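Example (one chain per record):
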Amino acid sequence: MVETIELLPGVTLRCFADSRFKQGCLSLQMIRPMDKQEAAMNALIPAVLLRGTVSAPDLRAITLRLDDLYGAAVGPVVRRVGDYQTTGLCCSFIADRYAMPGDRVLEPAIAFLGQLLLEPVTDKGIFRKDYIKSEKTNLIAAIEAQRNDKRAYAGAQMLKKMCRKDTFGIPRLGETAQVKKITARSAWEHYQKILRESPIDVFYVGQAQPQAVAQALKPLLDRIDRNYVNLPEQTPYNPSAGGSYTEAMEIAQGKLAMGFTTPITIRHPQFVAMQVCNVLFGGGMTSLLFTNIREKLSLCYDISSGYHSSKGIVTVSAGIDCQKYDTVKEQVLVQLAICQKGEFTDAQLNGAKQAVISSLQGVHDSPGAIESYYATAALSGLAMTPAEYKAAVEQVTAQQVAAAAATVKLHTDYFLKGVQ
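Predicted structure:
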């Protein structure tokens, strides 16, 4: 279903042909190793590129150009996938068949994407200082906004403690201190480096033929002076010492974040069973954590788990009364033990499996969802289509779920409590 074309060494085009949608989308991502020193820069650069080009030097001019392309849209792409961070742009535009007679959209849209990437507005050969300054302000605001979401903040702090020796503790957008260090020159020099050295993944969803997309991309790629550098392969969690951590803050509701490890990653044969296990454990309103700890025992305001399959990390997040920390933590381990012993009902297992299947059935609902699934799968090592994934979920047994759960071990917990 996905056709892969190597356009140049280190430049891969993946095309998903689908005639159901009037609009298609195309993403271009440069893949970087997740690194504390450059994460913030990688997050900043797409926003700076979207400020203007030589021929469309401001936001108004860019909007007019997109209007000429039948209301096309373009936005930044910054993802974290295991040990990798991606930085780039994604544009959406109508299929050529829906344009006026004689008009084409695919080639002009890709050409404009090329201008955004390769012809940014500059001042004395580097990014404009005012654009860098304003986008730094926006990025810092986005990073600092997490502190206002106490649940997300506690989860991020827990991962930082847990992943001191692993890149997964680095925030997707980088850290405020690193953003503040960025200058117009350092950002420009880094951008030239990642254009030159990074693997580039292009993903297209739409009605055009793959060879037509490849041909439209050729003028853009021919302008990049490439010196491609291979990336290391994705790795499982790199362990460091665990522990329990507490932070006090002016809050009414405590936030508990727990981090567990498992050797089962997205590249492991037991991956699908682990995915079902996570949903059964805490992945929804019918999960053991929610129905037992929240509903039956009334020990928390909310609770859920997540499975970071690229690394083999399971997380639990809960909003609790501060005095119930020990009890909630103990009960989380009780519910995990239920999974490990296989002491769940067939109805609970089937509910978890159906929840995973339902999420997979939505993958093909939009070009953006298709791009997100397949582009991320290519980076993480997931080698299943949604249909293959669904079939594998249907075959998962209670014994397989229990075996997967048995590999899950508590590593770190982080408690954000109110000031007494």
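Caption: Residues 129-148 form the longest helix (20 residues).
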